[in-house]
Write a structure and sequence with these properties.
The complex is a heterotrimer of chains A (214), B (245) and C (227). Chain A is of the alpha/beta class and 214 residues long. Helices cover 30% and strands 25% of the residues of chain A. Classes of the chains: A alpha/beta (214), B mainly alpha (245), C mainly alpha (227).
């Protein structure tokens, strides 16, 4: 066992009756960003979902601070923030309501991060504060989903294609948010086709663990 | 646990079931032939029902098996869900249609038996009613299995349904019995036989064993074909069917 | 830390109420369905009060049961589609607690109005006045059980082909005990059988059982469906 905060060892995942990848190992320590790369259909999303505990891998173990994630259960999810393909934004609630409720549902006492308004400011949605979020554009919804990262103070960020639908300014903004998070001792796992540059970033080629035969 | 996992490998089970099937089939046939002989010729006619009661030798074992198969299915499903054993998923899946057919047979023979007893094919008898609800539970399980493509998700989802079902079955069963006694206190039911003679009991037990072995035989046969289908991309299956050498 | 769980449950509850309030049509659908189905029976059976009275407990209960079944599709579906459910799995609190809060809100918006509306329909169905209290009571005890049990199939069929019809197929057989004792309680106090207290306490027992079992089973089901 190495001393890294977050480790996965011998991980295998399948979709349907097809094994996507097998024997995958990775580790991530405080202050690091891992960018998972690979062509479509390789199982990047499946990997991220397995790593943050949303799905059970077929084989392998994932450890957080040296303990098995499956044993930690909610104590692990309390430390992970996940932004997937779906934004998790309820369209009938306003942007501020979405964040405020997320804060009371997802933040343990003393673990709340930035305030709602502050978070909205950071992603440039202050003006949309009280609009029903179904009226927001795709990019704005994405930014609202990312604002959730700021109101919860969770050390491990797991982001699946976070740049989708974002304009140039927002992409730069998100990069700097990730940079700040990592600089403050956070960890980030990012699936993205977009090349972005940050100190402490490492690439991870998923293809190495995939069987060649399809 | 290691030993279970060794035999739970689909390939090993495929071979094991292959060697067991002929033996199980022979036992089933012997039990059926002797049970039917004893039930249809050796046992004397009932003094009240004449020969009509003989349908009991098919009805009662099927009713028993319909319940047992559900419990077995839930057991397999739970094992597959908790320990992630694929073989258990397969056994649960192939048990469902078998259990449903036991239930259907029990319903059909029950209503055929009802004709001479009650003068009509369907009476809201407690056992028939709870068999009917059991059939609905089986149908629901199979419908859920069939509508999910991913085999693992299908297995786990239907496992939860089966567990919920198995918790509910006693409640449903006793509710229906209570409901029945409330509404038809005086009627003659299939369940409360006034007295059963030893000459009737022996064929009944033999027939019940026969249906149990029939279930085991069919379980092996169906599990084998399900394994072949699921492992169709695996090397050993491709070799087996001659696609690869 | 328990304050945290309760706070989160309250937030889920408030969130549901807020969302459903803004989409009030969905709340109304189940209620209007209940109303229309019950109206159909006198049209089919005939307006004879004596006959209506005889079938009233059964009709009212079956209609309430179908209305609840119909509303089950709204329980998780929209949260599943927009990803909120996925996020709920990332909550630092037990998922079953979150699910329980959701179910409670759902019941407040469907089961409770159903029970409150039922006296009106009871009059329509010529149910004796003395049985109306039992009808409301049995629905208040029975419909939460229906929602709790129904949450499991609703969670299992998320994103599945033909999910809506499948839910009914899976859930209706499981509803039989509640139906039997609910309708029997009403019939009993309408003067056709034993006292209804025993039936009502059995409905209470079913509710307790469902409360202990269903949140756990439906959160397991959600984890499977979102795997």
């Amino acid at each position: 066992m190495s001393g890294a905060l977050f480790t996965a060892h011998g991980l295998s995942c399948a979709r349907g009756d097809r094994t996507l990848f097998a024997g995958l190992s990775l580790e991530l320590d405080a202050g690091e960003v891992l960018q998972v790369r690979g062509p479509n259909g390789l199982g990047k999303t499946t990997l991220l979902r397995a790593l943050c505990g949303l799905s059970r891998p077929m084989r392998g173990e994932i450890r957080w601070r040296g303990e098995k994630v499956s044993d930690l259960a909610e104590d692990f999810t309390a430390e992970v923030a996940y932004v997937g393909h779906l934004n998790g934004i309820q369209g009938d609630l306003t942007a501020a309501e979405n964040l405020r409720l997320a804060r009371s549902i997802f933040a343990r006492r003393g673990h709340a991060g930035a305030g709602v308004d502050e978070a909205l400011d950071r992603v440039g949605l202050r003006a949309q504060r009280d609009r029903p979020s179904r009226h927001l554009s795709q990019g704005q919804k994405r930014r609202l989903a990312l604002a959730r990262l700021l109101i919860l103070r969770r050390p491990l960020w797991v982001l699946d294609e976070p740049f989708t639908g974002l304009d140039v300014a927002s992409v730069a903004n998100l990069s700097s948010l990730i940079g700040e998070h990592v600089a403050g001792g956070g960890l980030a796992l990012v699936v993205s086709h977009q090349a972005f540059d940050l100190p402490g970033i490492r690439g991870f080629e998923l293809a190495r663990y995939c069987r060649t035969r399809r | 646990m290691k030993l279970i996992h060794k035999y739970a490998a689909p390939k090993r089970f495929y071979e094991l079931a292959g060697t067991l099937t002929p033996g199980l089939a022979i036992i089933t046939v012997v039990l059926f032939v002797s049970g039917l002989y004893l039930g249809l010729y050796w046992a004397p006619p009932d003094y009240q029902q004449g020969n009509a009661y003989r349908i009991m030798f098919v009805h009662v074992p099927n009713a028993w098996m319909s319940m047992m198969a559900y419990v077995a299915m839930a057991g397999f499903a739970a094992a597959g869900y908790i320990w992630n054993v694929r073989l258990a998923d397969i056994l649960a899946k192939v048990t469902a249609p078998l259990g449903a057919s036991f239930t259907l047979t029990a319903l059909v023979t029950g209503s055929l038996w009802g004709k001479p007893m009650w003068g009509t094919y369907w009476v809201w008898d407690a056992r028939l009613t709870s068999e009917l609800i059991l059939l609905f539970l089986y149908v629901g399980y199979m419908a859920l299995q069939a509508s999910i493509d991913d085999p693992r998700r299908a297995a786990h989802a239907s496992a939860i349904l089966a567990i919920v079902g198995v918790v509910n079955i006693p409640i449903i069963h006793y509710s229906v019995y209570w409901w029945h006694t409330l509404h038809q206190p005086a009627s003659l039911t299939l369940t409360n036989q006034p007295k059963i003679y030893i000459t009737m009991l022996i064929p009944l037990i033999i027939m019940s064993l026969g249906f149990m072995f029939f279930y085991l035989t069919m379980l092996c046969v169906r599990a084998r074909s399900e394994i072949l289908w699921r492992e169709r991309h695996a090397d050993w299956v491709r070799k087996l069917v001659g696609l690869e050498t | 830390m328990t304050g945290g769980v309760l706070g989160a449950m309250r937030a889920v509850f408030v969130r549901e109420l807020l969302v459903f309030w803004r989409r009030s049509t969905e709340v109304m659908t189940a209620l209007v369905f209940f109303l229309i189905v019950t109206t159909l029976f006198p049209l089919a059976i005939g307006p004879e009060r004596r006959e209506l009275m005889l079938v009233a407990p059964g009709v009212l209960w079956v209609a309430a049961l179908l209305a609840t079944t119909l509303s089950l599709n709204h329980l998780f579906a929209s949260d599943y589609q927009d990803g909120s459910l996925e996020q709920m799995l990332m909550s630092p609190y037990p998922l079953s607690a979150m699910v329980l809060a959701k179910i409670a809100a759902h019941w407040v918006l469907t089961g409770l109005p159903l029970a409150l509306l039922s006296p009106l329909l009871a009059v329509q169905m010529a149910l004796p006045t003395k049985a109306i209290g039992t009808l409301v009571g049995s629905l208040l005890l029975g419909t939460p059980t229906l929602t709790l049990i129904g949450a499991v199939p609703a969670a299992l069929t998320l994103g599945v082909r033909g999910g809506g019809v499948l839910v009914s197929l899976l859930v209706l057989p499981l509803y039989t005990p509640v139906l039997i004792f609910g309708a029997e309680a009403v019939a009993a106090s309408a003067g056709q059988g034993f006292a209804s207290v025993a039936h009502l306490s059995l409905l209470g027992a079913f509710l307790a059982l469902a409360l202990s079992f269903a949140p756990w089973a439906s959160s397991a089901a959600l984890r499977v469906s979102l795997d």
